[in-house]
Amino acid sequence: MTPEEEAEFKRRQKSRNLVLGGILLFLAVLFYMITIVRM
Predict the structure, then answer these.
(1) What is the pLDDT of residue 1?
(2) Cα separation of 12 and 17, whole Å?
(3) Which run of H or E residues covers position 28?
(4) How far is it, in rounded angstroms, from Cα 39 to Cα 1?
């Protein structure tokens, strides 16, 4: 793998991780809000 390909791969992996982290955070907040509303 050339250095350019490796940099591109790492950049894609980082953006994918950020998206997954955002989704997990959103779900955590959603469940938290649902719990508060049901009380």
Answers:
(1) 81
(2) 9
(3) helix 3-38
(4) 55
